[in-house]
Structures are given as structure tokens and as C-alpha cells.
């Protein structure tokens, strides 16, 4: 009897293995994402003796943990901590979108908890692509506000037009940035567009203009240049104003192909927050405060850019988190009574009480 029981167990497990490896190989042959087979366990408390509810919740937790095992392949532990809420909202809350199939290996009650263990077939490449997309979401970097100041000239004369700025604004909005008409911003795109008459010969009554658009992305406050870009292209239309507009728009479109992603990449790799703190009475107090800021888990390094009239300006190189996270940490600092006066995506203004 034992012999037949063991044989049946072996056949069932072998059949399950074939089914799951078949799942992975079929995906590959079909040109879809590859899969990964993992085992995970979920736990849920039993509330008011609701076994059914606890059973359902423990299964859901097991699925989330299965995804977590695969996510860990693509994301470091430090990144997992800093992206915890983002991953929870965008990935683990949608397990059905990433788990191809699953089998319950075991489920049982243990005291006041219900546990479920599963073997799941996870679409790992879908997860990889989603994580890459999350890396380049502006909201991950604090929803920086972008403002534009691009002067336009046509045939050497100042023009009351905003063709280049309008085109760039559209592309930044599509990339997820917050674009605003404001003096105060986290990123400023400034530059110049210059369109000039080219020719009207041999164009069948059409007119040709050439335009050069040159811009640079700046972090206000520090005036650090994030990146620069320029492009020269032509434009043809039936009138000079229309041809000049076409030429400017064509140049702006060329620039906008890469500018938003370049800005995002820079902000992701060099996330520096400017902290301005008033009412620091002397250098000793400034040294103590600087050391406390360097001790924050989000801060890779911190240095003083300027100190005068009891106001210190510090640059914080972040290894995780945003300016908002730093502001919360400062207000919770037990060694210093700090009040946050203003908060931007890359700027914090505070006062030492």
C-alpha cells in the first residue's frame, strides 16, 4: 500500500512539474514574457472565527510574497525599502496581472492564524518592465515642477510667440512632469529659438525657413545645469510666419524626443536637495546640525555650500527618498527643534527654533 501511495505522490508531483515547465516553455515559444516558478507562504489572522476570510487573505498574501521573491531579483534591498509604497500600489496589489497560475501546496490553521503555501508561475519579464517604468516616474522623484522661459526671434526680431516652449511643455506633460506657469519651480527650461528666412525659390510658391532652438535645463537656487540641447531644422509653408513657426516647431520636436528622459535620468542619478536653515547662531551649532543630517538614512552625504548671517545653505546627496522624506525626518529630530517653512521637490527652507 505504501508503495502505491508513494508512486501516486510521485506521479502527481511529476505531472505538476511538467505542467509548470510547460507553462514557461509555452510562453517562450509564443514570444511572450518568460516565467519563474517560486514557492511562497502567506499568513492571515483569524478574526471572529472567520476561517473563510482568513483563508482568502492568506492566499492573497502568499501571491504577494511570490511576486516579492521575483521582484527581489531585479531590485536591491535598499531600493525595495525606498520603493515599498510604489511597488505595493503598482505591482503587488495586482497579483493576477503577473501570476500565470498557482497551486496550493498546503494550507493549515496554526493558533489564531491561517497559513497557505503555494507554488506560483510568475511572469518575471512583465515585472522587470514594470519596475523599469517605475524607476522613471517623475512622482518617484517628488513630482518636480517644470517652468519654461524660451525667447523667440524671427528674422532677427523679438517675436511674441511661444512655439518652442509649447512643444516642449507638451512632451514634459506626456512624460509625467508637472508643468506650471510660475516663477518658483524645481526645474527651469530656458533658452532661445531663432528662425530666419531661407528661400522661396524653386518651391512652387512655398517659403522655406530655418530655425535653431537652444535650451538648457537648470535647477533654480543652485543654478546647476542639468543638461543642454540644441537643434537646427527647416520648415516650409505658404507664408513667412507659418514657415517660421513650422521650422521652430520641428526643431523643438527634435529636442523633445530626449530632453524629458535626460532630465529624469539626471535627477535619478544625482538627487541633490538644497536645505536652507535659518537661526543657526554659530559654527559649533552648524557642525552639530550637519552631523545630525548626515546620520539620516536617506542621506549619502551632506556639505555646507554657504553660511552667513546665521543662515546655512546645505546640499544633501540622497541615496533614497525625496525632499518630503527629509523634511519629515528633520521635524522628528529630537536634538533640534526645526520648523519647515517651505518645501519643494528639491528645496527645503527651515528654521531652527
Overall description:
The chain is an alpha+beta fold. It folds into 3 domains: 2-135, FlgT, N-terminal domain (Dodecin subunit-like, 2-Layer Sandwich), CATH 3.30.1660; 142-263, Double Stranded RNA Binding Domain (2-Layer Sandwich); 271-352, Alpha-Beta Plaits. The protein is 39% helix and 36% strand. The protein is built from 10 helices and 14 strands. The strands form 3 sheets. Strands 4, 5, 6, 7, 8 and 9 form a 6-stranded mixed sheet that branches. Strands 11-12-10-14-13 form a 5-stranded mixed sheet, covered by helices on one side. The longest helix has 28 residues, at 2-29. Mean pLDDT is 80; it is low at 1-33.
Layout of secondary structure:
Layout: H1 2-29, E1 35-45, H2 51-74, H3 77-82, H4 84-90, E2 99-110, E3 113-123, H5 124-135, E4 145-154, E5 157-159, H6 163-174, E6 178-179, E7 187-199, E8 207-219, E9 224-237, H7 240-256, H8 259-269, E10 272-278, H9 283-294, E11 299-308, E12 311-318, H10 323-331, E13 338-343, E14 347-352
Parallel strand pairs: 4-6, 4-7, 10-14
Antiparallel strand pairs: 1-3, 2-3, 4-5, 7-8, 8-9, 10-12, 11-12, 13-14
Helix pairs in contact: 2-5, 6-7
Amino acid at each position: 500500500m505504501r508503495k502505491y501511495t508513494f508512486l501516486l505522490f510521485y506521479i502527481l508531483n511529476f505531472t505538476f512539474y511538467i505542467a509548470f515547465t510547460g507553462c514557461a516553455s509555452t510562453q517562450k515559444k509564443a514570444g511572450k514574457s518568460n516565467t519563474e516558478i517560486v514557492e511562497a507562504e502567506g499568513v492571515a489572522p483569524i478574526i471572529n472565527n472567520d476561517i473563510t476570510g482568513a483563508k482568502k487573505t492568506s492566499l492573497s498574501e502568499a501571491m504577494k510574497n511570490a511576486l516579492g521573491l521575483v521582484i527581489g531579483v531585479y531590485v536591491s534591498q535598499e531600493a525595495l525599502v525606498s520603493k515599498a509604497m510604489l511597488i505595493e500600489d503598482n505591482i503587488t496589489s495586482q497579483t493576477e496581472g503577473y501570476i500565470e497560475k498557482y497551486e496550493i501546496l498546503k494550507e493549515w490553521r496554526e493558533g489564531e492564524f491561517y497559513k497557505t503555501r503555494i507554488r506560483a508561475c510568475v511572469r518575471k519579464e512583465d515585472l522587470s518592465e514594470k519596475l523599469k517604468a517605475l524607476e522613471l516616474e517623475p512622482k518617484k522623484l517628488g513630482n518636480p515642477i517644470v517652468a519654461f522661459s524660451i525667447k523667440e526671434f524671427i528674422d532677427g526680431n523679438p517675436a511674441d510667440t511661444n512655439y518652442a516652449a509649447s512643444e516642449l511643455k507638451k512632451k514634459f506633460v506626456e512624460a509625467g512632469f508637472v508643468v506650471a506657469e510660475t516663477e518658483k519651480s524645481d526645474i527651469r527650461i530656458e533658452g532661445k529659438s531663432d528662425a530666419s528666412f531661407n528661400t522661396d525659390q524653386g518651391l512652387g510658391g512655398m517659403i522655406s525657413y530655418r530655425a535653431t532652438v537652444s535650451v538648457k535645463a537648470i535647477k533654480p537656487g543652485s543654478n546647476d545645469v542639468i543638461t543642454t540641447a540644441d537643434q537646427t531644422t527647416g520648415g516650409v509653408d505658404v507664408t513667412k510666419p507659418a514657415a517660421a513657426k513650422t521650422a521652430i516647431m520641428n526643431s523643438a520636436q527634435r529636442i523633445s524626443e530626449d530632453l524629458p528622459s535626460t532630465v529624469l535620468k539626471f535627477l535619478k542619478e544625482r538627487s541633490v536637495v538644497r536645505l536652507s536653515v535659518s537661526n543657526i547662531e554659530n559654527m559649533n551649532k552648524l557642525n552639530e546640525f550637519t552631523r545630525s543630517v548626515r546620520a539620516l538614512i536617506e542621506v549619502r552625504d551632506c556639505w555646507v555650500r554657504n553660511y552667513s548671517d546665521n543662515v546655512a545653505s546645505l546640499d544633501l546627496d540622497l541615496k533614497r527618498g525625496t525632499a518630503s522624506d527629509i523634511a519629515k525626518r528633520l521635524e522628528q529630530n529630537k536634538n533640534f527643534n526645526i520648523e519647515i517653512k517651505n518645501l519643494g521637490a528639491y528645496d527645503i527652507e527651515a528654521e531652527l527654533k
